[in-house]
Each structure stands twice: as C-alpha cells, then as structure tokens.
Amino acid sequence: MGVPVSLQTFAVFTAAAVLGARKAVISVIIYILLGLAGVPVFTGFKSGPTVVTGPTGGYLIGFIFAAAIIGIMTSAFSQKKWAVPVSMIAGQIVCYIFGTVWYKYIYLSSDVSLVEALMICVVPFIVPDIIKLTASVILSKSVRKALKY
C-alpha cells in the first residue's frame, strides 16, 4: 500500500506560518483527534484509528512537529524574507522523516531497506511537495500581510 498525494501539508504549513507554533500545533492535534473520532477529514475522506496506525500515520504525527517548527521559525525570524520558505522546507523534512520511519519500522515492521522506504515515502512526492510548499509560502505571506503580522 502506497502513500497518497494530498493537500494536507499545504494546509498544515500555511496554518503554521500564519497562526504561529502554539495555535498551529493545537489545530493539527484537533484535526487528528477529529479524524480519530470518526470525522472523515483524512485523505480520501477516511477516518478512524486505522488511518493513524496505517501507512500514513507517521506523516500525521509529523504534522504536529512540522507545525511547531514552522511556527517557531516564522515567528522568530519574521523580519527575514527567507523565514517562511526555509521553515517550510524544515517542516517538510520533518514530515518525510516521520513518514518514512513510521512506514519502515512501525507499519511494515519488516526488512525493507531505507532506500526502498525512501523510494515509497519521499521520492514520488518531491515535485508535488515543492509545488505545494511554493503555494503555501505565497498564500501565507499574503495572509500575514493582510492580517498585518
């Protein structure tokens, strides 16, 4: 079973850059709890504990840490033009790490090599993630400007 392409990172990254670390982390935790409770908020209108314990569970957990990193970096370096894109790149790397480690060691619990796990969990998503990250940078900067952050 593969990992689907979704707009989840776009939403998490944009929220983190606009809301800041605390509010973004809370919003991601609420999102995950809603999905666990049965609200179909996950990719493919899925919900429930099987989604969180399935192949994409690591990404969902990684969203919490990515939101924290993006929110902290964006706030700490708010006057720097590079803050938002660099923080989102860091957040994306965190998502890749959590997603790949989860997929390899927790979901599969097998002898799949790290290279094989990366080929499933990272490589197919690099180009779509660059596009989503770019859109998120543009949107979050516009929203921050409109809100006078």
Q: What is the count of DSSP helices, taking H or I runs of 4+ residues?
A: 7
| Sheet with the most strands, sense and barrel status | none
Assigned CATH architecture: Orthogonal Bundle
Remind me, CATH topology?
Arp2/3 complex 21 kDa subunit ARPC3
Q: How many distinct folded domains?
A: 1
Percent helix, as a range, is over 70%
Structural class: mainly alpha
Number of strands: 0
The top level CATH class name: Mainly Alpha
Strand content: under 5%
Average pLDDT, rounded to a whole number, is: 93
Determine Rg (CA atoms, Å). Answer: 15 Å
Name the overall outline: globular
Oligomer: single chain
Uncertain regions: pLDDT < 50 for 5+ in a row? none
The topology string of helices and strands comes to: HHHHHHH
Give the distance, in angstroms, between the N- and C-terminal Cα atoms: 42 Å
Structure write-up:
- By secondary structure, this protein is mostly helical.
- The protein has a single domain, classed as Orthogonal Bundle (Arp2/3 complex 21 kDa subunit ARPC3).
- 72% of the residues lie in helices and 0% in strands.
- It is built from seven helices and no strands.
- The protein is globular, with a radius of gyration of 15 Å.
- The mean pLDDT is 93.
Give the structure's gist in a few sentences:
The chain is mostly helical and 149 residues long. The protein is built from seven helices and no strands. Helices cover 72% and strands 0% of the residues.
Present the secondary structure layout.
Elements: H1 8-19, H2 21-37, H3 49-52, H4 57-76, H5 83-107, H6 114-121, H7 126-146
